[in-house]
Amino acid sequence: MTTKRAPFIVVEGLDRSGKTTQTSLLQARLEKENVPNRLLKFPDRTTTIGKMIDSYLKSTSELDDHVIHLLFSANRWELASTIENLLNEGVTVIADRYAFSGIAFSASKVEASDATVPKLPFEWCRAPDIGLPAPDAVLFLDIAPEQARLRGGYGDERYEKEEMQARVRQAFKRIGEEAEEGTLWVVVDAGSERDVVAEEMWGSVEALVQRGLTAPVGRLWKDRVL
C-alpha cells in the first residue's frame, strides 16, 4: 500500500488583503470536513527571533536590511522539521505567509536616493530559504494597493506604504511565474466579497486535501543549490 501524506498549503498576499481572515476561514472549513490540520503564522512572533522581528515591524527597533531578512528566514527554519513531520503524519499544514513574502518584501526595498535601485538583490533574498519544505499549493490574495489602503488598520506597520506594496505586488508576480514544478500557484481576487474569496480558495485545494499525496515533501528551489 502506498503511504500518503497531507498537503502543505500557503496563503500569501499583500498587507490588508484579508489574508489572516481567509486563512482562518480555510482552517474552519478543514475542521468542518474533519481534516486534521495545523495553522502556522509567519513570522512566528512568539520565539526569541520572532520577538526581534515583531519589534522591527512595529518600528520600535532598527536592524540592517540584511540582518532582518536573515532573521525572517531563520524564523521559518525553526519550524521546517515540524512542518515536514506533520505532513507525513497526515496533518494538513496551512501557513499564513511563508518564504515568498520574505523574498517579495526584502527585494522590494529601494535606496532612498534612487527608488529604482533595490537594496537587496532578488537572488540574494531567495538564497537563505533554499531547501525549506515546499508547499503543494500557494493561494495568493491579490489586491490593488490603493484598494488595500482603504481597509482598517492600514499603515500600522513598517511596510504598509502604498508605493512599497506596489513593488511587493510585482515581486509576487515574478515569484508566481517562477513557481516550483509541482506547486499549484493560484491568484485569488481579494477584492471580492469575503465568502466568494473563501469558496474560491477552498475550491482550489479541496481535491488536494481529500486525496492526499504520495510524493515526498518537496524542497524549495532545490535546483538553485550551487
From TrEMBL:
The protein's name in its UniProt record: Thymidylate kinase
PANTHER family: THYMIDYLATE KINASE
GO terms, biological process: dTDP biosynthetic process; dTTP biosynthetic process; dUDP biosynthetic process
EC number annotated for this UniProt entry: 2.7.4.9
Gene Ontology MF terms in the entry: ATP binding; dTMP kinase activity; nucleoside diphosphate kinase activity
Top-rank EC class of the record's enzyme: transferase
Pathway of action: Pyrimidine metabolism; dTTP biosynthesis
Cellular component GO terms held in the UniProt record: cytosol; nucleus
Pfam families according to UniProt: Thymidylate_kin
Species of provenance: Ephemerocybe angulata
Annotated keywords: ATP-binding, Kinase, Nucleotide biosynthesis, Nucleotide-binding, Transferase
Family to which the UniProt record says this protein belongs: Belongs to the thymidylate kinase family.
Residues forming coiled coils: none
Origin organism lineage: Eukaryota, Fungi, Dikarya, Basidiomycota, Agaricomycotina
SUPFAM superfamilies: P-loop containing nucleoside triphosphate hydrolases (SSF52540)
